[in-house]
Every structure is written in C-alpha cells, then in structure tokens.
Amino acid sequence: AKAIVQRRGWWTSAFIGSANCTNAALLRGVNVEVVAELTGKASKVGGPSDWVSERGMGPLLQPFSPISVKDLLEQRSIEDALERARQFLIRANLTLQCTKADGGYQMKLMGADVLEGLDAEVWAWPLTVPRERQIAVHTTSECDLGIYASQDVTSLTGFRIRIEGGDLSFGLELPLANPPLDREAGVLALILRNRAEFLRYLLLLLGEPEDALLKSGDAGGTGWLGSGRASQDAVPLFEMLLRAFSRDPGKLSQIATAIGQLEKAESASGETLVPEEFMKIWRTFEEARKLDSLR
C-alpha cells in the first residue's frame, strides 16, 4: 500500500491504498485501484510532516527506493516469462482423473507430458487443501497428485510456477473425470461435526436467524440434543419445521435432500451425523409430507 499526504489550505488529506502517483492511477482513471481518503483540519489532525513522523504513520512506512533500469528490465523479463508459462498451462488442455483408492481417492493430472518444452518448474495441488501439499508436476502423461478424502476432491486446481527465482501461483478449473459420488455428503459430514453445526445448517435451510441458536445456549454444543431434555431455552425446532410446513414446504424438501445425503455419508463412514432426537421429530414431518402429497 502507498500513503500520500498533502495539505490544501486549512485541510490535510491522507490517501492510503494501492494507487501509485501516476497519470493512469490518479488522473486518467485507467487503473483499477482501492484508495481511502481521510480529511481533517490541519489544526486538529496535523500536517504532512506530522503524519509521516514517528508519532504518526512513520513506523509503518518504508522509504521508496527506486529500482535500477537494469534490475527493472530483468524483473519484467521474469514476469513476462511467468505469464507466458501461465498462458501455456491454460491452453495445455490438462485434465484430472479420479479413482477410488485405499484411504480415499487418487487424483492424477493427465496430459502433463505437453509441459516438457516448458522451461519452468511447476507444482500442482487441489485448492481444497493447503498449498503445502503441492506436488511437483513431472512431464508424463499421468502425474500423481496424491490421495485425498472425498470432500477434498475438486476440479479447482492450484498451480505454482517458478522461473529464475520468480514465482507465480494461480488457480484453474480443470475437467474432472469420475468424481466421487459421495463428495457432497462428505463435505456435509466434515462441516456438521457437532450438534451446534448441525443446528446452524438446519437454521440456514429453514431461513431462520442464527440468533435462535445463540439464545438457546446450544451454540457450544450443549442443551438441545445434548441430554435429551428440552429446556425453556431450547431451540424451537419443531415450531420452525411446522412453520415451514405450512408456509413454505419447499424448505422441507431441501432438508429431506440433506438428510438423505447425510445418511449416505453415515453408511460410508460409520459415524452418526444426524442426531436421533432430530430424526424422531423429522419422521413426523416425513409422514405429514407424504399425506399432503396425496391430497
């Protein structure tokens, strides 16, 4: 970020943001920049010398050191090479292949042999996992990216390119063959690890404010669905479901779809994801929905 501080008459203005002091940024408006302007009377907020002093923004600022023409040309040459490599990867028609494996799903980058003529180091990884799990891309027709859980399998792929010390990271959405059928259920199972998260998800589907969960005291995972006893502060889930049934039945269809996905995830993982206390309530509404559909 840059800081520009100036005084105009009685007023001091500070412009803080991404814009450089160039015609393109400040006059012609060609660049896309984000800048915040702070303005106040100089007698109250001080002048430019006060702002850049040790009592002002001084400790946050670094003096501008112009780069030499030679260094600038070298830097631009590396940046241009990185951009050419990025465009090459975009046009390389790379694809992803997913196959079931022990412990998860094996992902492979297909068609990486076309990168043989690319004078750069390349790494790749699914964007659902940390960058630290990046895998060096070898110029072979099949490059193994590793084994991942179903919820981590994605077509969104991160790439990192390095050329002569220059580094560029970006993401691409690649065609994904044979994605896991239980991926959506796996994502839900990962998110809904406790009662509070399960309730938040239900409130989201019902279009109810999350305040109901916070007021109930169940945001920390205790209370409703905890001891099996409903207190006066319990989440009024039955009333919310009843309101949706009478006013907007489509919301219950969304919940039915989510419950079906979670039950599939339960079968695959052996974990209990849908609390039995909720299912006792939900079965009542399932029967009511069936009877309503017959009318």
Blueprint of the fold:
Elements (H helix, E strand, L loop, with lengths): L1 E7 L2 E7 L5 H5 L7 E7 H4 L2 H4 L17 H22 L4 E7 L2 E7 L10 E6 L8 E2 L5 E7 L7 E8 L2 E8 L2 E2 L5 H9 L3 H12 L4 H6 L20 H11 L2 H20 L6 H18 L2
Parallel strand pairs: 4-11
Antiparallel strand pairs: 1-2, 2-3, 4-5, 5-8, 6-7, 6-9, 9-10
Explain this structure to me?
This protein has helices at residues 23-27, 42-45, 48-51, 69-90, 183-191, 195-206, 211-216, 237-247, 250-269, 276-293; strands at residues 2-8, 11-17, 35-41, 95-101, 104-110, 121-126, 135-136, 142-148, 156-163, 166-173, 176-177. With 295 residues, the protein is α+β, with helices and mostly antiparallel strands. Strands 8-5-4-11 form a four-stranded mixed beta sheet, with no helix packed on it. Helix 5 packs across helix 9. The longest helix has 22 residues, at 69-90. The chain is flat. Mean pLDDT is 83; it is low at 218-233.
